[in-house]
Amino acid sequence: MKTDLDDNQDLSKQIAEAIRDAIIEGDLIVDQRLPSEAELCDKFSVGRSTVREALKRLAAQNLIRTQRGASGGAFVNRMSFEEAYGQQITTSTLLLSMNSVDFETACEARYALERACAPLSARRRTPDHVATMRAEIHRQSQPGLTDEAFCASDVAFHRALVDGAGNPVLSYQLAGAVEAMQPLMNMITYTQRDRDRIVALHTRLADAIEGADGSRADLILSELAEYTVELGQSRMSTR
Amino acid sequence: MKTDLDDNQDLSKQIAEAIRDAIIEGDLIVDQRLPSEAELCDKFSVGRSTVREALKRLAAQNLIRTQRGASGGAFVNRMSFEEAYGQQITTSTLLLSMNSVDFETACEARYALERACAPLSARRRTPDHVATMRAEIHRQSQPGLTDEAFCASDVAFHRALVDGAGNPVLSYQLAGAVEAMQPLMNMITYTQRDRDRIVALHTRLADAIEGADGSRADLILSELAEYTVELGQSRMSTR
DNA sequence: CACTCCTTAATTGTCTGACAATTGCTTGCC
DNA sequence: GGCAAGCAATTGTCAGACAATTAAGGAGTG
């Protein structure tokens, strides 16, 4: 690990990067204990606060976890899919909201990615996935559902579709795209007619997935994408 | 912003989360200055080191930047696509390496996502994108190229393909998938025959993109995916 | 007035020392 | 052996000090 630091730069940042690189390079392996704060102070010749700030930076990225007490310390964290989801969603959400990405662009990205999953999902989905999709469709048909709850169910439905592909890497990549769109989707108000139309499309989609008909699922998804963009545009313009 | 903290928990973590939520909720907008460290100490009734550790956590996620001096302080950062790329790549790389995701799964995810871009790229790519792809193909044909340089060029080629779709959200999502695979790809040794084959596929791909033939590009990508998986399997098994 | 230089105040970056809280280990007692 | 007390190591928090950086204002000078 690099221990020589450039003065007149942010020391804690440099230390964090040195340790992060060591983790990425594999010099520090999962569950391995890092040197104690005191040892790191010596190693980098800095004060304890500086070391601590560096460690907090790494903790914020889920790269390490810390434990108090004897035989405690900082340990390299196994990056779990769960944590990675969370990070990705936060980042994607902020990216979309802060850069005023328009609805159309985000929608296009989302459905393009989702369509990539459809054929795989049609081939590999388990009965569980289909059941989840059916359950969400049922929820979406309930009268008196708030727009937000409708959106949340929509996310859950599509999540099941994506998970059906049985590829955790795909699921991870798509979690960000789908969930990050939720704030944008929440700005839309759905009339009963809109919901009926969406539920109908979802039903056909679930049928296609259950029937292992990937190309039909793809087709329906493109319909859904088109309809959603249309909906977004009309709703945005009436404001 | 929430200022009441649960004692006997990690204070700096709670503070960081409170501020992060305020940013996500839009209570703190881009380029807005946060209260100074001293003010935050008062607001949360904690010591300065605790506040500083919280701020470093946020800085590690690129949520804020800090400036020294009078009229300095911590400011809400605009999450740029550039920074988001970097974060995503780090996360994806670690996720893949730490969870021993097998080559096949990662490859499938990567090419599934890339195929989602192909039709869009065929429609929208600029001459610049095509030129980049051609340039990378040329580089890949050079004799004496190391395997690593070959892989890097491969990434650049596919990056141009994805960027050609002209959708920054898509580019962002895919940056992680493509670049995170590089360490896995780097484990492969490419014979001259392998390279020739890949260069041929790349050339046909560039032709299809240039000729705005999305479905042909899609087809070639599936060929490339199949060949890559095959290559990976044979190379892994001979170890 | 315009320009330069100096001082001042505000703010973050770093260091030191102290104490609290937690936790595993050892030691002594029954 | 089993149990409780204490000990040592480690992170979490705090307070105070000083350094480094930067913007703003003021003094002096042409």
Automatic annotation (TrEMBL), chains A, B:
PANTHER family: GLUCONATE OPERON TRANSCRIPTIONAL REPRESSOR, TRANSCRIPTIONAL REGULATOR, GNTR FAMILY
Keyword match DNA-binding: yes
SUPFAM superfamilies tied to this protein: GntR ligand-binding domain-like, Winged helix' DNA-binding domain
Sorted UniProt keywords: DNA-binding, Transcription, Transcription regulation
Record has Calcium as a keyword: no
Gene3D superfamilies according to UniProt: GntR ligand-binding domain-like (1.20.120.530), Winged helix-like DNA-binding domain superfamily/Winged helix DNA-binding domain (1.10.10.10)
InterPro entries according to UniProt: GntR_C (IPR011711), TF_FadR/GntR_C (IPR008920), Tscrpt_reg_HTH_GntR (IPR000524), WH-like_DNA-bd_sf (IPR036388), WH_DNA-bd_sf (IPR036390)
Name of the protein in its database record: GntR family transcriptional regulator
One Pfam family here: GntR
Domain HTH gntR-type stretches: 9-79
Xref: CDD domains: WHTH_GntR
